[in-house]
Structures are given as structure tokens and as C-alpha cells.
């Protein structure tokens, strides 16, 4: 009877929780930190963009972020993805923003909602829908009523959506901060007084929505006091808010950099990234967000730029596929743990900064008689021996040491105590690729377009590609020229000249292919010139313009031309005389897209896919505008899957009707690359430590597991430039080997992430040299042989932990000035 009453009371309590829901929080701030229910908080956040992954990936990504020591997940809201057509909304699939925020909530993390709704983000058109550009009288991101009305409508829509689901912290939800506009201070000068008025309006409009949590504006030095201005960049330790009542916040700590076609692989070292974070918190920062924590993939046409790659890996702690980027992930996790352990002292303690000279400094936080210390050395070349309370500490160049009790160094940003994982791409074991793949093909049907030049849209002048419609990368420009032998321009030697911003253009004359032209990242205006022979009578001139993502950044970026702005001219020379016929204001006809896309050849589930028209037999290669498709088996297991498109030119790819994005493996990176080992010391910039020169800019393309199904799967390619699909194959990515490292008095942790450790190749405790894969014993080592000790602890296990101390390995003969460490190299089952 007693048990029954307790059971009834328990269920009543559960019912009360369900009815009342999570308790509302008082989210505010003072000049020191964000406060939640009156308590100052350290908040370490990481950006994960919901459209750059899949719904199925979200829980794992967010769990790994939490395990990595994050308190919050930050995301933009992508206006053009949610409202591609005016008042036609899409919040389905990986655009389900509410579900994403609730997944964050389920993990017990805070959320930072950067509504913008301009986002930049290397996203197509900076996240603004192109239909905005075409509204009569509109000017974007300035004091323009038409734009501001649309922006307010969308912002209010998102806020009301969050309110309805009780997702703001003031309602018991996870959202503790919201952002209006984005990096406007970088471009405000382009808009003059109208820009200042617009920025003030943004703050006023946002505050009128009464969300119950603070609003922020990043990169806006003169933001109104009603919002918090924040910093973005590689380093923000010297940033000071414009209001003494605003905390020092860093909304974007760039973990690497984005990649463009033709550019190097960006690599920001874990040491430098950790140094930037430690210095920020040492200098009074209390909120910091990694941009990106997981970068993900630019599926479909979402990549902006133009010329931003499909991969948005960003050298983030979680790589494009959602697996740990070690040692960056682990090195930062260790830092987060230390910072959280001294949260109260950092947010409430008195601060004493001492400049020790030679770029050395000490910062001491003291609260109720307890102190925590930061020892910094921002010298780019020389290590330092810093004395504190009579004890000498070794602080390497360009590093920060943290002593939670001002006695014991628990963390140093340059001393990596996390494992390094070496990833490998394995062939698909489900079938013997690429020889097992049987291809069918179909040429793109475009003869009528090229020869007849008839399109559903006509104008009496050339127009910007954005003015037609942004539903496809491809737009046909078509016109005709009638000539007779008495025409002044008539000549046996004529030149067709085209000024374009396409960003790619293919030219045809009377059905014959003339050639192609394209730009590069940052230089996408081009001039195409070709000697042509026109005939008497009608000459059909046709161009196919292809975009590679619309401009996403800059003052007035929306006015940057796209397509063929002209002039387009025919030039003839008669001796010293040059005659030019300008076609710019002639009658032009337009057709959006290409037939295969309109017929949805990429998805056999659609009845109009023309499946009966595919051909088989001898495979045509190096043919422009060709469709290919094949059937493959999904790779076994749950490791991430990529498709290797080496041998192809440029085009689009789909798996089971799901777009993988644009591919361009024929674009070779030819910039200067780092030849020597990368030195973490000194300021990072986007091209420091770059790799991959002489290689395809992007060869591998992510195939999320949720795109695959049991049995047969279909890969469809649209090859624009011409290539050879016979080399295409699928691979899985897993940890092949791992190198564990731990300094003395710490634990060495090693993991094969789901597989067993099959061999320990190297183990040594002492002064260990070399790098992962080529470690070597130093000048002093432990008395005991470290190898059998580690083998006994680790072989056959998925992970193991070994103390790095003399109790485990015996004494060493190392000098007291040497920082002893345990280094282990292991092979994993693959």
C-alpha cells in the first residue's frame, strides 16, 4: 500500500513536470559575463550549421560537442533556404530549425541563435533570398523601407516560431543569446548615414520583439547600448566592448578557414588556436565561440563566394564528416575542462596583470583568498622561464600556462596532451570498385536551344543573371545577328568578345562550340575573345552562363554582377580601321536551367526522369554536358562515406536523389604551399600552413549515411566540362593509427574510436622527440621499457589510459628543466 501511494505521487510529480515544463531562466549580463539566474557564467560555444549536415547527424555532432567541453551550440538562420520564394517557406529535413534547437536542448546545452538574417557564412548570396534583389526600389542592408519590412517579417517569423515552442531561455528553453545583423561594422562605411540609421533600426526592431534574452551584434563598434557588441577574428584578447556594462564576447574564433576552388587546404594548429582561447579568458573574456566547431558540407547550391568548395570542413574540431579532428578536439577539450574548473574565480575574482617584459606576463585572479594564475609568453621565437612565488615555470614561445591554484601547471597551450589520429580512406568492401560499377549515360539535350535560340523570357538588353531567377546555376543567353556582305562589319576576320561574371561561360555560334571561360576566387570577371566566321544571313549566338555561388560578402555585395553583363561585341578590322557591333542592347532570349535538371534525371523515383533514354555499352569519356549514372552497394559499417570523383571535370552529383553539391576535381591547386613543418608560433592567417598544392582542390565528396539504403543505391553525375567516370569509387574513413601523448603527471589517453588497438609500435617516457609516425627516444628515458607496459594496458582494447609518471615507468635521468612526456604510437584494426 505504501509503495502504491509513492508510485501515485511519483507519477503526479512527473505529470506536473510535463505540464509546467522546464523552468524559465533569467538570462541577462553585466560588464563581466552573461548571467543566468543571477550567476555569472563562462560559456564556451561552437558553431554547427544545421543545413550543412543531416538530421541524423545532429545528435552525434551535438553529443561530441558536449563531450568536448562545450556549453552552447551557435548557428545562423539561413533566410534564403527557408524562404526561397517570397512567402513560400521550408522548414523540412535538415532545415528543421526547431528540431535542431530541441536537439541542442535534449543534450543539455545552451543555444545561440544568430538570426541575422544576413549571415555571410560563405553561403550563397550571404543567406539573403535573391527575390529580395528583384523587388522594385529595394536596397539591401541599408535604411530602405522595402528591405527592412521584409527583414522584419522574416526575423519576427523566426522569433515567433521559437516562442511558440518555448525555446528562449526566458521560457525555459536553451536559447540564451540572439544576434541581429552580422558583421555590419565591416561594411557600414559603404552605406554612409543610411548605414548608421539602419544599424540603429536593427537594434530597436530586435528589442521590440521581447525575447527575454540579450541581443548581440558582432563586429559593430558603435552598436547601441541596448545590444552587446562582440568580436570576430583569429584573436580577440585585446577586444574591449563599447559599453562598460557589456561582457567581453568572442562570437567567431576562426578554427581554420574556408576553402575556395584553387586554394590550399587551410590548417590552423591546435597550439595556436588554444593559445588564442587561453589569452582571451586570461584577459577578461567569458564567452567564446568556435567558428566552426563542425563545418560540414555545402550541399546543393548552398556554397557562396563565388568559388567556395563543396567541403566546408574549416579545419574544425569535428571534421566535415563529424568525426574527431585530433589532436585539435582533445587539446581544446583539456583547455575547456581547466577553464570550467576556475569559472567562479574568472568571473568574480579581482584581477592583477603584471608585465614581466620580453613579451612575458602574469595574470592572477583572486577570490576569497583563492587564486588562479595565467602565465603567458607571446614571444614568437624564444621560450621563457617565468618565476612565480619562487617557482620557475617553463612557458614555451607563443603559449599560455594555466595554474588553477597558482602552484601547479595543469595546462599549457603549446604542450599537446591529446592523441593525434591518422585517418585513412578505405575502398568499399561491399564491391570491387571502380571496376564493378557499370555506367549508363545520356547526353544533355540542348541542340534546339543552341540552334534556335528560343527561350520563354525576352528582353531588349542583357540582364544580370540574378534578375531572371536563382533556381539554377545555369542560364542560357541567346541572340541572333543578321549580316549581308554589304554590312560595314562584314569581314573574313571577326572576333567575338564577351565580358562576363558568369562565373563560367560556354559559347556557341550557329550550333558549333566556340570555347569556355571561367574566373577564379576573387577574380571572376573575365574577357572571352574568339576568332569567328559569320555567315551571310542569320547567325545564332548562344551562351550558357553557370554560377559557382553568388557573392556573399562586402559593402553593396548584392550589386556585384552575375552572368553576362556585357558588353558583348563583334569586332572586325579593315586595314587600320576597327568596326565594333555592340550586341548588348539587342533582343535577347533566356532559358533557365538545362533539360536534364528540369527533367530531374538525378532521381529515378520521379516519373519524368527519362529512365528509358539512358544508354549502355562503350562508355563515352571527355564529353561535355553528359549525364552518367550507376548502381552501387553501400559500404558496410557506420564509418563516414565519401565518393572519389578523380578523373571528372566539373559538374553536379546526387546519391539516391540527394544532392552532394558541386564537384570540380579537375581544378588543381597551384599556389605556394608550406614545405617545412608548420610552426605554430606567431600570428595565424588564412594561408599560413596551407597544404595540397599540385593536387585537386577537392577530390572526395561526403555521402551522409542517411542518403544510403540497403541494397542498391544510385549515383548520378552531370558532367559539364567532360571527364572519365570509370575511376569513380566509394570509400570509408576511419582511424588507421593513433599517437597518444601526455606530459608528466597527466594521463595518456588513446582510442581507435570503435575499433581495437592491434599493435603498439612505439612507446617511450622521457625526453621524446619526433612527431606522430616518426617518434624517437630522446636523450633521457625511463628505467623501465615503456613498450611492454603500454602493450599490456592497451592491445585488444578500443581505448586505454596510462599514467605518465615515474611510478609507472620508473625514474629517468632527465634534467629538471626537461618536460618529460609519454608518447605512444598505435595501429588500429581497420
What's the assembly state of these chains? single chain
Radius of gyration from CA coordinates: 30 Å
CATH topology of the largest domain: TIM Barrel
The CATH superfamily of the largest domain turns out to be: Glycosidases
CATH class of the largest domain: Alpha Beta
Largest sheet: spatial strand order = 4-5-6-7-8-9-10-11
Q: What's the β-strand tally?
A: 41
Can you characterise this structure?
The chain is of the alpha+beta class and 830 residues long. It has five domains: 2-325, Glycosidases (TIM Barrel); 335-415, no CATH class; 423-444 and 597-733, Jelly Rolls (Sandwich); 454-585, Galactose-binding domain-like (Jelly Rolls, Sandwich); 744-828, Rhamnose-binding lectin domain (RBL) (Jelly Rolls, Sandwich). The protein is built from 14 helices and 41 strands. Strands 4-5-6-7-8-9-10-11 form an eight-stranded parallel β-barrel, surrounded by four helices. A hairpin with a 2-residue loop joins β15 and β16. The radius of gyration is 30 Å and the shape is globular.
Chart the SSEs and their pairings.
Blueprint: H1 2-20, E1 27-29, E2 34-36, E3 39-41, E4 43-48, H2 58-67, E5 72-76, H3 79-82, H4 97-106, E6 110-116, H5 130-133, H6 145-164, E7 175-180, H7 192-207, E8 215-218, E9 228-233, E10 249-254, H8 270-282, E11 287-294, H9 328-341, H10 343-348, E12 350-357, E13 360-367, E14 370-377, E15 384-388, E16 391-395, E17 399-403, E18 411-412, E19 420-427, E20 439-443, H11 447-452, E21 457-459, E22 474-483, E23 494-500, E24 504-509, E25 512-518, E26 526-532, E27 537-546, E28 568-574, E29 577-582, E30 588-592, H12 595-598, E31 626-633, E32 641-644, E33 651-655, E34 658-663, E35 700-703, E36 712-719, E37 729-743, E38 746-751, E39 757-766, H13 786-794, E40 799-804, H14 806-809, E41 821-828
Helix pairs in contact: 8-9
Amino acid at each position: 500500500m505504501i509503495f502504491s501511494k509513492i508510485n501515485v505521487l511519483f507519477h503526479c510529480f512527473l505529470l506536473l513536470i510535463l505540464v509546467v515544463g522546464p523552468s524559465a531562466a533569467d538570462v541577462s549580463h553585466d560588464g563581466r559575463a552573461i548571467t543566468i539566474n543571477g550567476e555569472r557564467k563562462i560559456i564556451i560555444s561552437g558553431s554547427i550549421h544545421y543545413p550543412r549536415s543531416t538530421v541524423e547527424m545532429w545528435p552525434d555532432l551535438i553529443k561530441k560537442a558536449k563531450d568536448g567541453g562545450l556549453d552552447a551550440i551557435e548557428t545562423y538562420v539561413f533566410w534564403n533556404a527557408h524562404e526561397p520564394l517570397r512567402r513560400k517557406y521550408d522548414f523540412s529535413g535538415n532545415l528543421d530549425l526547431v528540431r535542431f534547437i530541441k536537439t541542442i536542448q535534449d543534450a543539455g546545452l545552451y543555444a545561440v541563435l544568430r538570426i541575422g538574417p544576413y549571415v555571410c557564412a560563405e553561403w550563397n548570396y550571404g543567406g539573403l533570398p535573391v527575390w529580395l534583389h528583384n523587388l522594385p526600389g529595394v536596397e539591401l542592408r541599408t535604411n530602405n523601407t522595402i528591405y527592412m519590412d521584409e527583414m522584419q517579417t522574416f526575423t519576427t517569423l523566426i522569433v515567433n516560431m521559437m516562442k511558440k515552442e518555448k525555446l528562449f531561455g526566458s521560457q525555459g528553453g536553451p536559447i540564451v543569446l540572439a544576434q541581429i545583423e552580422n558583421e555590419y561594422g565591416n561594411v557600414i562605411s559603404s552605406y554612409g548615414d543610411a548605414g548608421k540609421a539602419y544599424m540603429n533600426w536593427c537594434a530597436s526592431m530586435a528589442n521590440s520583439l521581447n525575447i527575454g534574452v540579450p541581443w548581440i551584434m558582432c563586429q559593430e563598434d558603435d552598436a547601441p547600448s541596448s545590444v552587446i557588441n562582440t568580436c570576430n577574428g583569429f584573436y580577440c584578447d585585446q577586444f574591449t566592448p563599447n559599453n562598460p556594462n557589456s561582457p567581453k564576447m568572442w562570437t567567431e574564433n576562426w578554427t581554420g578557414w574556408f576553402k575556395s576552388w584553387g586554394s590550399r587546404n587551410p590548417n590552423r594548429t591546435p597550439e595556436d588556436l588554444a593559445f588564442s582561447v587561453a589569452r582571451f579568458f586570461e584577459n577578461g573574456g567569458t564567452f567564446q565561440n568556435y567558428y566552426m566547431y563542425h563545418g560540414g558540407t555545402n550541399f546543393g547550391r548552398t556554397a557562396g563566394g563565388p568559388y567556395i568548395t563543396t567541403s566546408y570542413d574549416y579545419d574544425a574540431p569535428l571534421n566535415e564528416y563529424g568525426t574527431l579532428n585530433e589532436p585539435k578536439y582533445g587539446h581544446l577539450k583539456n583547455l575547456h575542462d581547466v577553464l570550467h574548473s576556475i569559472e567562479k574565480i574568472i568571473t568574480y575574482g579581482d584581477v592583477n596583470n603584471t608585465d614581466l617584459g620580453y613579451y612575458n606576463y602574469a595574470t592572477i585572479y583572486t577570490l576569497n583568498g583563492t587564486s588562479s594564475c595565467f602565465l603567458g609568453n607571446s614571444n614568437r621565437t624564444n621560450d621563457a622561464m617565468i618565476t612565480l612565488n619562487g617557482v620557475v615555470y617553463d612557458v614555451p614561445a607563443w603559449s599560455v600556462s594555466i595554474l588553477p591554484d597558482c602552484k601547479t601547471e595543469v595546462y599549457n597551450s603549446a604542450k599537446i596532451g591529446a592523441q593525434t589520429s591518422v585517418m585513412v580512406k578505405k575502398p568499399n568492401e561491399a564491391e570491387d570498385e571502380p571496376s564493378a560499377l557499370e555506367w549508363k549515360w545520356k547526353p544533355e539535350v540542348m541542340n534546339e536551344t543552341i540552334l534556335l535560340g528560343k527561350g520563354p523570357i525576352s528582353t531588349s538588353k542583357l540582364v544580370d543573371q540574378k534578375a531572371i531567377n536563382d533556381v539554377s546555376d545555369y542560364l542560357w543567353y541567346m541572340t541572333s545577328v543578321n549580316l549581308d556582305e554589304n554590312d560595314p562589319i562584314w569581314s573574313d576576320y571577326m572576333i567575338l568578345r564577351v565580358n562576363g561574371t558568369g562565373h563560367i561561360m560556354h559559347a556557341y555560334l550557329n550550333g558549333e562550340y566556340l570555347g569556355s571561360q571561367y574566373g577564379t576566387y576573387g577574380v571572376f570577371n573575365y574577357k572571352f575573345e574568339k576568332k569567328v566566321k559569320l555567315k551571310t544571313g542569320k547567325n545564332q549566338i548562344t551562351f550558357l552562363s553557370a554560377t559557382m555561388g553568388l557573392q556573399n560578402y562586402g559593402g553593396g555585395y548584392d550589386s556585384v554582377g552575375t552572368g553576362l553583363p556585357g558588353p558583348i561585341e563583334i569586332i572586325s578590322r579593315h586595314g587600320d580601321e576597327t568596326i565594333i557591333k555592340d550586341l548588348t542592347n539587342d533582343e535577347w532570349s533566356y532559358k533557365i536551367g538545362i533539360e536534364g535538371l528540369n527533367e530531374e534525371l538525378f532521381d529515378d523515383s520521379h516519373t519524368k526522369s527519362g529512365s528509358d533514354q539512358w544508354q549502355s555499352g562503350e562508355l563515352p569519356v571527355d564529353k561535355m554536358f553528359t549525364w552518367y549514372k550507376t548502381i552501387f552497394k553501400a559500404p558496410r559499417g557506420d564509418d563516414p562515406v565519401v565518393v572519389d570523383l578523380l578523373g571528372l571535370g566539373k559538374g553536379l552529383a546526387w546519391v539516391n536523389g540527394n544532392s552532394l553539391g558541386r564537384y570540380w576535381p579537375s581544378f588543381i591547386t597551384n599556389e605556394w604551399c608550406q614545405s617545412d613543418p608548420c610552426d605554430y608560433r606567431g600570428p595565424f592567417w588564412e594561408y599560413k600552413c596551407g597544404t595540397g598544392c599540385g593536387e585537386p582542390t577537392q577530390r572526395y565528396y561526403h555521402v551522409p549515411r542517411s542518403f544510403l539504403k540497403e541494397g542498391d543505391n544510385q549515383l548520378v553525375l552531370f558532367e559539364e566540362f567532360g571527364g572519365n567516370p570509370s575511376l569513380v569509387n566509394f570509400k570509408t574513413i576511419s582511424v588507421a593509427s593513433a599517437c597518444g601523448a601526455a606530459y608528466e603527471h597527466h594521463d595518456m589517453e588513446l582510442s581507435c574510436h570503435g575499433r581495437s588497438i592491434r599493435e603498439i609500435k612505439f612507446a617511450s617516457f622521457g625526453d621524446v622527440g619526433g612527431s606522430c609516425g616518426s617518434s624517437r627516444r630522446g636523450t633521457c628515458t625511463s628505467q623501465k621499457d615503456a613498450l611492454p607496459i603500454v602493450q599490456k594496458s592497451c592491445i585488444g582494447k578500443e581505448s586505454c589510459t596510462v599514467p605518465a609518471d615515474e611510478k609507472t615507468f620508473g625514474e629517468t635521468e632527465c634534467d629538471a628543466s626537461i618536460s618529460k612526456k609519454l608518447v605512444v604510437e598505435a595501429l588500429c584494426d581497420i
